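Hi, here's the filled form for the chain we discussed.

Project: internal
Contact: R.S.
Residues: 146
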Amino acid sequence: MIVSRPQTNTIISFSFFLAITLFVLAMNVISLGNNVAWYTWLIIALLVPIAGLVIYKIFIRYKIIRVGNNQVEINYPVLRTKYQYSVTDIVSWKENVVKTGKNSVYKELEILFHDQRKLKFGHKEHTEYTRIIGYLAQKASRKKTP
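And the returned structure, exactly as it came back:
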């Protein structure tokens, strides 16, 4: 069984970013009591959606992917939901490769299931990315789209 989780470095980095964002946001909310400047409102208006998006995308949508025994299981522990599919339930899968610089490449795996649910994750955010690609190439090679 292949188990893929978000990498620890990614979670730590976003935690530091979120802590700094919430600290700056708190300081600006506290300063609203003294005197209100236009840039204070601008900072609050910018940081609230950014913090909300990071909380949602990284922490609430935290997913654990298990692949093996002809099964693909997607577990969202924070939302307490679990989706389990057979390899035959995969409609298509593809690996998107984007060159981001001279020598760097970003890879993302996208799997489409029969109920139109998509699973997307990148090689820099999740562990065991290459093993999952190998497993899909072995078990569902005919469903790979170019």
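Let me know if anything looks off before we file it.
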